Structures are given as C-alpha cells and as structure tokens.
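Researcher: Here's a chain I'd like modeled. Treat it as a single chain, no partners, no ligands.
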Amino acid sequence: MVLYFDVVLLINLFMNYMILYFVALLLNLERAIGRLFSGAALGCLFLLNMVWEKFIVLQSFPIKLMISMVMILVSFRPKSFREFIKILSFFYLISFSMGGGVLAFFYFFNLRQNLITDSLIINNILLPWWILLISALVVFLFLKYFWPLLRNILSRDRFLAILTIVIDGKPLEITGLVDTGNDLFDPLSNYPVIIVELDAIKDLFSKELQVILGMGPEESLTVLGETIGNSILANRIRIIPFESIGKSKGLMIGFKPDLVKIRYNDKIKSTKEAVVGIYQRVLSAEGTYRALLNPVLLNQ
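Model: Modeled as a single isolated chain. Structure tokens:
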C-alpha cells in the first residue's frame, strides 16, 4: 500500500488544528486562526521520520511532550503557568478522546475488512481516512452544543450571584457563591452572614480601619473599640463565632450594612436583614468569587 506524505501531512495538520480549536472552544480562549495554524503545523514535526529515518527520535515521549508544550505556547500564549497546565491538560484530554473515538467507531462498525483504499495506518491499524473527519465532527458537535448544557448543569458558575452591598450610601458590587456550607448567623440579630474577602470590601472603610481589620479578629478586637468608638460603624460591628476545619472555635468580625441586593438567576432580591463577615484570606484561588452567600438569604 502506498502512503503519500502530502496527504498524511494535510490530514495530520487538519486534526491538530481541530484539536487546538476544540481546546479554545472548551476553555473560551481566543481563537486566532494564524496562531492555531502555526501550532498545528508544529504538531506535524514528528512526521519527518517518514522521509528520513534519523528523525525517529521525534517519536520519543519526551520530544512529543515538548512539541505539545510548544504548540500550546504558540497557539494560546498562556498568561501564567497555572493556565498553561490547564490548557495542556485539556489538549491531551481532547486528543485522547478523538483518538479513542476513531478506534471505537472503527471497531464498532467492523470496518477492518472494508474500504481498504484511501486509508491511513495508525499504530499498525488500517483506518479509512474519513473516520478521522467523522470523529472530528462528532467532537465538534459535542463541544459546541452539548458541553455548554452539561457545564451549565454541573458547573459551580450556576451558583454565582452578584451582590451589591450598601453602607453609608456607598454601594459595592462583588461576585458571591451560594454556599450550602455557609450556615453562619449573627448571634445578636440572628441575621444570616455573608462572608466577604477583606480585599474585596476594604474600600468601604477608612485606611486606619483597613489596617486593623487586616490583623485578624483576635488581634484587632483590643484596638477596634477605640477606633470606631465615635464613628458611624460603632453600632454596626458584629462579632461572629464560627467553626471550621482545623479550627474548632474562631471569631469573625462583621458589620451590618444598610442594604444588600442579590442578583441570582435573573432575579433581584433586596434585604436589610444580613450581616457581612470579613475574611482576611482568599476564598477562590481563581478569583471566580469573593464572597460566600448564606442560601437562607435567597428564601427570605
């Protein structure tokens, strides 16, 4: 059987491009045709061993891994190492999915005895070239239409809400996660507590108060009273006890806002019966949300 290098090159170029395109589609990355094409072309380097045996080293795992990494760098220009690893992981996930889909389709329909012409040899298995196109089409339809629906069902994004916290006439908008694990209530008013990162809400406070709140509740309690004694915050401050993993008992400083507006599932709720608890660390490493919303607030 004769295999034409230009045909194999074009098909591999096409498949590489589709894999990179699917990665961009799945992760909502910029789909620059020129960069995707360049990355796909780099992925064809291992085919050089078909024309010169000395290039057999390109078939080794370290070289293949290196080529894959360069493909990602050229195609997407990730802004951080974390993003690079995420893109690379999805690149292999989609590659394996397409490869597995090809073989599954091939054996499911028992095509080994048919369509010998216009075929490719992949890992010593004779495959009709059009199966690659069918596999690419199936993956495209899945990622384009079914995956967004599945992600909407399973993703935590559907539990995100937009919060507007108002104090002394100053509104502040942040993204919060509806967290079923947040069952905190202010012991004084019995209002549900919204846990918010200090960095996300610090602009509502004076510079002096920001420094004190950054110390942590236990350290700041001794100087907090003197700082806010004559301010409008004096009647708003709350001390909220809580328990968490690794800390059986703790205290969280909070305050009573004038109003909290919650936009969730295209509905807007307003309440004055909420307390904001101040958290000194980061709630989401990706920055997806900066507050944990007590789900009771959605049912008030």
